[in-house]
Write a structure and sequence with these properties.
The structure holds two protein chains of two kinds.
Chain A (H helix, E strand, L loop, with lengths): L5 H9 L3 H23 L2 H17 L10 H19 L25 H13 L2 H11 L5 H8 L3 H20 L1
Chain B lengths: L8 H20 L6 H23 L1 H22 L3 H19 L7 H4 L7 H15 L4 H15 L1 H15 L2 H48 L4 H12 L7 H4 L1
Helix pairs in contact in B: 4-9, 6-9, 7-8, 7-9, 8-9, 9-10
The chains are: A mainly alpha, B mainly alpha.
Chain lengths: ~180, ~250
């Protein structure tokens, strides 16, 4: 049987099919969590924000229009939730570097050079908020440029520009 | 999945860099939400649809049900009200009363009334009631309700006895009250109409008597205009009894 798309699952959930949400959640939980965690650093805050995003999705299930991609809608909610968080948490917009090291060890991580990962992590955390957000929407959310532009409210060219700047800074940690 | 739409050499280079970064990033970064957090989110999601789905999805059914109940309640209330024939009969009689009061005074009654102006409009009203009864305007069951009104205007104590069966017949307190209010309103209208008619009758008598006096004065003064005046009077009041002095 053909697997249902995100949009179909969301539509079914909006009509009261709870198991449809389970599938949808399983598909997006990791990426969304990392997207938030990389932005705020602090695990407790990340957990709160993560739950808050899903609560907004649940509450807004009837407002979802299946004509727009679910991923874009999900990350727009997450992005706006983070912006609200930044506004509330002013001026502490930067990420706490120490907390970024609180990652769980996974089976695939043995092959990764810890020092290299450390550099990458620190460099992502050091990026300006807009560049970090754009980069994470790309590599975690897997959004297209147009979708990132729509989510962040920036033009497509601005999105490209932010990605270039972010990549130039991170290249060193990847290449070195 | 993470490829950037290719718009030229610059985009391709950017795309390649991002692919490489994404690969490294995903290899090193496998963080996932804690299991408890997953459970919390899923519980919220399930509660949201399981608790309210039935009510929200079938909201239109509740709207329809409410509308049906309102319509049913209104129809019951309207059914419990006193029959409309009562009102229609009442107004029909009122209409006839007014029409009748505009007519010229009957000949047979003129001598009896003549020379005495009724002290109370009720006296004339009683006469008119008798006229109605004589003409049999009120017949059958319709007459019962109207008769009650007419009797009440003359003898309220008698009406009290007649109201009780009406209430018990309805077997409902509210319809009885509504009927009582209808009776009172109708009674007031009838009283007013009867007063108007009595007033008209009285003014006609005074007018006719005054004209006859004038005609008599003219005749006694030898003024020949009395003949033309008398003709005019007879034309206006063909059935009005003339005094002996003017009969010849």
């Amino acid at each position: 049987m053909r697997e249902m798309t995100d949009e179909q699952l969301m539509r079914r959930y909006a009509k009261g099919d709870a198991p449809a949400f389970d599938q949808l959640y399983a598909r997006h939980r990791g990426a969304l969590y990392r997207y938030i965690k990389r932005q705020v650093g602090d695990e407790a805050t990340a957990n709160d924000l993560y739950q808050g995003v899903w609560e907004k999705v649940i509450r807004g299930r009837r407002k979802y229009r299946s004509t727009s991609p679910f991923t874009g809608w999900l990350y727009r909610i997450a992005h706006n939730h983070l912006v609200d968080h930044y506004r509330r948490a002013k001026p502490a917009a930067s990420v706490d570097m120490d907390t970024l090291g609180d990652r769980q060890a996974g089976p695939g991580e043995q092959a990764i050079d810890d020092q290299r990962w450390q550099h990458l992590r620190e460099n992502i955390a050091a990026l300006p908020v807009e560049q970090r957000d754009t980069l994470l929407l790309k590599i975690e959310g897997g959004l297209k440029m147009e979708e990132i532009a729509s989510v962040t409210g920036a033009s497509r060219e601005t999105v490209k520009s932010r990605l270039r700047y972010a990549l130039n800074k991170l290249k060193r940690s990847v290449v070195e | 999945m993470n490829s950037i739409q290719n718009n030229g050499p610059d985009d391709k280079a950017l795309n390649d860099d991002l692919e490489e970064l994404g690969r490294v990033y995903r290899q090193a970064n496998l963080e996932e939400p804690p299991e408890l957090l997953d459970q919390a989110v899923l519980n919220i999601a399930h509660r949201a649809v399981e608790g309210k789905a039935g009510w929200m999805d079938f909201g239109w059914v509740h709207g329809l049900t409410t509308a049906a109940v309102v319509v049913l309640a209104l129809s019951i209330i309207l059914t419990q009200r006193p029959p409309l024939e009562l009102d229609e009969t009442g107004f029909e009689i009122l209409h006839e009363t007014r029409q009748d009061s505009l007519q010229v005074m009957p000949v047979a009654r003129a001598p009896a009334v003549r020379g005495r102006v009724p002290a109370k409009p009720q006296t004339a009203a009683r006469d008119i009631h008798e006229d109605f009864r004589a003409k049999k305007v009120i017949t059958g069951e319709d007459a019962t309700a109207t008769d009650e009104i007419l009797l009440r205007s003359n003898a309220p104590e008698k009406v009290m006895h007649k109201e009780q069966p009406v209430a018990s017949h309805a077997d409902q307190a509210q319809p009885a009250e509504a009927a009582s209010m209808q009776f009172e309103r109708l009674e007031m209208d009838v009283d007013k109409s009867l007063s108007d008619r009595a007033e008209t009758k009285r003014s006609q008598i005074i007018d006719a008597d005054a004209q006859l006096s004038t005609i008599l004065s003219l005749k006694q003064a030898g003024d020949t205009r009395w003949i033309a005046e008398l003709e005019s009077f007879i034309e206006r009041y063909p059935d009005y009894p003339l005094p002996d002095e003017l009969k010849n």
